[in-house]
Amino acid sequence: MHSPKETGITVVGIGADGWPGVPERLRRIVLDADAVLGGRRHLAMLPDLPGQRREAWPSPLREGLPSLLASLGGASAVALASGDPLVSGVGTTLIELLGADSVRVEPAVSSVALARARMGWPAERCAVVGLVGRDPRLLLRELAPGHRVLVLSSDGGTPAAVAALLSGAGYGASRMTVLGDLGADSESRMESTADGWLASPPGRAPALHVLALELVGPHRYGLVPGLPDAAFEHDGQLTKRDLRASALARLAPSPGQHLWDVGAGAGSVGIEWMRVHPACTATAVEAQAERAARIGRNAGRLGVPGLRVVTGRAPDALADLPAPDAVFVGGGATRPGVLDTCLRALRPGGRLVVHGVTLETEHLLADAYRRHGGELTRVAVESTAPVGTFTGWTPARTVTQWCLVVAAR
């Protein structure tokens, strides 16, 4: 068995039954430590122990944690967390800061596991969305008829916020079950529909609870790229549906990867990139402030409020951005330095997709293709439209698309 000194810090999960439910082996680790970190509720559970340093988590946590950890010096330390510290918990944050080799996690049964057990939901048939300290609009990405979702709530106000979101999206008939204080003697359960919660809440939700959702509503949007153009608020500066699907197929979103959406317009490419997987991130760069604000509204409404929007003009606005795994240039490719900056920023294996509709941009992309290789495609899309009393085809502007996968340097 490793001691806290050997691992840097040990994170001990505590269930809803509190300190009495902690196994003796883990109690000894906590009480033998020089310092114990945790929420005030967890620290208050511990028996008095003169000489042991006890520190509540700083607020905001992420910003204050490095200095708190540095102040420990070589002291042995334990952090207390709820349930499984790696389920939307502080264990994840500590590992990101210190590295997995410096953090040992001793989990209790997670609230997610307990909630699934109470609902009778297999793990592979439900999603988990963490809303602790996060934007509730993340839930909108999960909306689909018959889908089951477990929400890790921020506080007792989360059910009302979720009910309003669901009702506003046409999912007011969805079943909401509040599972309070899971694993404790005070465990509770409340049920309602989203519309019913707004009209007459069934009671005060406990501060500690998991919200189980059985979604009932219309089919909205799938997760495969190519949402209808009408899904986005725009002023005409929008990468249209078929071209967007083509671009995203080549950008190849993968979990944990980051996209630059340069000349973002309505933000459609960055938004669809993030909708593919919760771990996908993106930065949308847009020169016009009005369009940049519109991107933020589109991202929130489509369930990816974490999309970062930078108001500025490339290439200057690209400085100091997180390195991308993929870049889409939907506008401004002819500006000096834009393509070169994007190519330099991409890691080996990174993907670049550029669209152009003017002769000048087409000439630029043909030259880039000649110098770098890749794939050069012209995409023409036609849609039906009335022609008098008949129906005919109306062509959209033909788009030249250049795609490049960056090789190892």
Any idea of the CATH class of the largest domain?
A: Alpha Beta
Please report the number of helical segments: 13
Low-pLDDT segments, ≥5 res = 1-6
Q: What distance separates the N and C termini? A: 45 Å
Number of strands: 19
CATH architecture of the largest domain: 3-Layer(aba) Sandwich
CATH superfamily of the largest domain: Vaccinia Virus protein VP39
Which assembly state applies to the chains in this document?
Answer: single chain
Shape: globular
Q: Overall pLDDT, averaged?
A: 94
Strand content: 15-25%
Could you give a short account of the major beta sheet?
7 strands, mixed
Give the domain tally: 3
Question: What would a concise description of this structure say?
Answer:
The chain is α/β, with parallel strands linked by helices and 409 residues long.
Report on this model:
This protein has 3 domains: 105 residues, Tetrapyrrole methylase, N-terminal domain (Cobalt-precorrin-4 Transmethylase, domain 1); 103 residues, Tetrapyrrole methylase, C-terminal domain (Methyltransferase, Cobalt-precorrin-4 Transmethylase, Domain 2, 2-Layer Sandwich), CATH 3.30.950.10; 177 residues, Rossmann fold, CATH 3.40.50. The chain is 29% helix and 24% strand. It is built from 13 helices and 19 strands. The strands form 4 sheets. Strands 13-12-11-14-15-19-16 form a 7-stranded mixed β-sheet, with helices on both faces. A 5-stranded parallel β-sheet has the order 3-2-4-1-5, sandwiched between helices. It has a 5-stranded mixed β-sheet with strand order 6-7-10-8-9, with helices on both faces. Helix 12 links the parallel strand 14 and strand 15. The protein is globular, with a radius of gyration of 25 Å. The N terminus is likely disordered.
